[in-house]
Recover the amino acids of this structure.
């Protein structure tokens, strides 16, 4: 099909193209030569359903490789990992006849309890955005369209279809839209999927500011906006807001509603045609020249990538790697029935699944060590709890080392509901503690989609390997890591708090009476903990290795009024090859808004052989320093001091350098309602006003610049009140003229606030 003239189609035909033709397909119009294309989940494997269909992961889907889910990819901090997954997914999608893969998900992990955290990358928008960009570019280079979802603020499952996420504008821009913005502008995804929820009271599917003003006008998006499955309430309203394709179909009722709305003058035919053109462009881009993918090679890839994602949280007494274990006891149901993905629409019918115990046995056999196994706990039948635990503890007393596979039961982590607690099941906590009390060495391997509390047992064990959910190769990957065949290089993409009560969303998640108030503002995750100096169990960015690194020689260069770059040297000082994540943060209090203690500004992951040294160069563009200015409705880099920090993680700064940036030279707008303090601080109006006011200040009264209580009182008064108090000595017209002559926002950026 190519270049169908739109006027060759009737209104009914055009309207029908704007709603799915089936559960997973667009509408075909054979008489006009228009084919249907297929959209399927996503994001970490292809969930192609040929027969029974659903968007909850209930019915059968064709076998496909289950790659590490986003929670794992986020922990890899590796664009390379994300890109390799994108490339492989494109091959499998094309072979299964899928034209658009429904992913990646780039919502922000606001609370550790959010049920779909396993499908999202991070609590940080830069990390999420960069990894998603690499994934989308690779997927689309392979001929398959991406669908960046869920736009926007779908950060919880509780009431996900109706809740209103009430978010102030700066928080929305800096935290919740930022990853979407990066993917849209840097990777041009074929589609963007709107979420179910409302944003500040307006359903995402009907949010004109979001779907049109921000996405298209500001970010320049040219692809198609599609709905989440069933997210459209009113087809005409959604179309007017900028939603091109409503899914799923068939949608006879929606099509008729659209036709009626056009005839009634509520929707223009031009609006219909614009959306049709975008849907047809999507259909045009599709192609099926696929060769069958090498599923064995993809399985190996899934295993190799999984090993880059796991995070070694703790490793004392040289416990890991298990180089020469005399005897090994493996405990836990997840060693034989691994947890490697979450529930819901992303659930993949894996081509095969590596069983950790089998790979551990193979590694141990190669080293002449015997392996025994005890189930330890049951995820289903709690009646057996005591007997299983006691048997495991008895076996642990005689073992050289014990590896306990613990984690969240599968039924507790899924799309559709949020988690109820941060802790592991009590039976597992008790098991770990009792095993650790008698074992010579205890290692815990965790499987969970969102972070879990490590309290009550962390100090009892020698090592903790956080696997999150690693996809179908997780069993082999974990064994490789335990025995040192692979060197851990994952870093936390999400803080592990001490207590749920410490989390910034504790009081607001998941909301009440239809609203969730994002009261933490921009202080999400590590931004909060670092700013209020609250202790955590493990900070964002934390992760250990079997080798050691030395980081030195940080140099920062200012490249412009709002840009800088840096170089730093990393050396592998240990005896194993490894990968190191260089994490760069910016700390500043520049500008009129409360800034987090530090913010991730750049990162890269590098491979180093033992003894090898590399110089890393990273650019810091204006967004690394900018904040969203609400009155000006734009990104602003303020004049001020910026500390560029290289961190071992978000709370351990290794090196830092301060630079001064002139910024954008934008002064805040002034009016007679602005307070005196703002007037005095203003770079243009301030000095002029000072000169005018000095003679007016009462003899013996406060000096304009002093820190007295009186002056603080004056500084907080609006200028129009001072005007009255000076009894005409200050000239109102002169002040107004001063507001007009001030440098102000660069009006070329037409941006606004995302309120209804
Ligand atoms: C999910 C989407 C998914 C869609 C289709 C929805 O319930 O929120 O992420 O792509 O179903 O399965």
């Amino acid at each position: 099909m190519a270049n169908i003239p739109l006027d060759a189609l009737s209104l009914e035909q055009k309207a029908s193209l704007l709603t799915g033709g089936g559960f997973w397909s667009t509408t075909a119009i054979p008489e006009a030569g228009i084919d249907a294309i297929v959209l399927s989940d996503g994001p970490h494997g292809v969930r192609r359903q040929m027969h029974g269909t659903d968007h909850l992961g209930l019915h059968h889907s064709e076998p496909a490789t289950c790659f590490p889910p986003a929670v794992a990819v986020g922990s890899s901090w590796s664009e390379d990992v994300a890109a390799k997954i994108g490339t492989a997914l494109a091959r499998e999608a094309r072979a299964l006849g899928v034209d658009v893969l429904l992913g990646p998900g780039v919502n922000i992990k606001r609370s550790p309890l959010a049920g779909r955290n396993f499908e999202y990358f991070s609590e940080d928008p830069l990390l999420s955005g960069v990894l998603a960009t690499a994934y989308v570019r690779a997927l689309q280079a392979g001929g398959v369209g991406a669908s960046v979802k869920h736009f926007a603020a779908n950060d919880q499952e509780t009431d996900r279809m109706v809740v209103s996420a009430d978010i102030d504008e700066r928080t929305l821009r800096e935290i919740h839209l930022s990853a979407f913005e990066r993917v849209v502008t840097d990777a041009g995804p074929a589609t963007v999927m709107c979420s179910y929820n409302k944003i500040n009271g307006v359903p995402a599917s009907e949010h004109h500011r979001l779907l049109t003003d921000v996405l298209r006008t500001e970010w320049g998006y040219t692809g198609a906006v599609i709905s989440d499955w069933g997210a459209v309430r009113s087809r005409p309203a959604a179309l007017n807001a900028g939603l091109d394709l409503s899914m799923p179909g068939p949608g006879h009722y929606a099509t008729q509603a659209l036709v009626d709305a056009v005839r009634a003058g509520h929707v223009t035919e031009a609006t219909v045609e614009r959306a049709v053109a975008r849907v047809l462009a999507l259909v045009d881009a599709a192609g099926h020249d696929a060769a069958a993918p090498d599923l064995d090679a993809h399985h190996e890839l899934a295993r190799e990538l999984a090993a880059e994602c796991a995070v070694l949280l703790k490793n004392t007494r040289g416990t890991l790697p298990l180089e020469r274990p005399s005897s090994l006891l493996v405990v836990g149901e997840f060693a034989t029935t691994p947890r490697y993905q979450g529930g819901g629409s992303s659930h993949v019918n894996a081509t095969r699944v590596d069983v950790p115990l089998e790979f551990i046995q193979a590694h141990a056999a190669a080293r002449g060590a015997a392996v025994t196994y005890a189930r330890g706990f049951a995820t289903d039948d709690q009646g057996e709890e005591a007997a299983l635990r006691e048997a495991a503890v008895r076996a642990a007393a005689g073992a050289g080392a014990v590896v306990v596979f613990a984690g969240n039961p599968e039924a507790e982590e899924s799309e559709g509901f949020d988690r109820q607690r941060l802790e592991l099941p009590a039976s597992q906590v008790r098991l770990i503690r009792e095993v650790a009390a008698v074992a010579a060495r205890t290692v815990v391997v965790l499987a969970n989609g969102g972070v879990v509390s490590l309290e009550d047992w962390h100090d009892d064990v020698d090592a903790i390997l956080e696997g999150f959910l690693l996809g179908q190769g997780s069993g082999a990957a974990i064994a490789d890591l335990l025995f040192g065949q692979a060197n851990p290089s994952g870093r936390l993409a999400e803080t592990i708090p001490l207590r749920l009560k410490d989390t910034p969303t504790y009081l607001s998640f998941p909301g009440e009476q239809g609203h969730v108030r994002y009261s933490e503002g921009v202080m999400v995750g590590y931004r909060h903990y670092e700013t209020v100096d609250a202790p955590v169990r493990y900070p964002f960015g934390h992760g250990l290795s079997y080798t050691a690194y030395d980081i030195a020689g940080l140099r920062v260069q200012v490249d412009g009024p709002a840009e800088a770059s840096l170089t730093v040297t990393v050396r592998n000082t240990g005896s194993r090859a490894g990968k190191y994540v260089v994490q760069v943060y910016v700390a500043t209090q520049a500008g009129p808004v409360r800034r987090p203690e530090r913010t991730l500004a750049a990162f890269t992951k590098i491979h180093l052989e033992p003894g090898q040294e590399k110089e890393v160069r990273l650019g810091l563009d204006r967004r690394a320093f900018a904040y969203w200015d609400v009155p000006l409705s734009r990104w602003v880099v303020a004049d001020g001091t910026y500390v560029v920090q290289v961190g071992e993680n978000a709370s351990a700064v290794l090196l830092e350098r301060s630079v001064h940036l002139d910024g954008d030279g934008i002064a805040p707008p002034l009016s007679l309602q602005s307070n005196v303090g703002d007037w005095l601080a203003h770079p243009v109006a301030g000095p002029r006003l000072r000169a005018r006011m000095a003679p007016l200040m009462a003899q013996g009264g406060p000096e304009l610049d002093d820190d007295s209580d009186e002056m603080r009182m004056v500084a907080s008064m609006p200028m129009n009140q001072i005007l009255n108090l000076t009894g005409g000595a200050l000239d109102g017209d002169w002040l107004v003229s001063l507001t007009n002559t001030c440098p102000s926002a660069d009006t070329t950026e037409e941006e606004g606030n995302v309120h209804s």
In short: The longest strand covers residues 549-560. Residues 41-42, 55, 102, 149, 228-229, 345 surround beta-D-glucopyranose (CB under 6 Å). The CA atoms of residues 572 and 612 lie 6 Å apart.
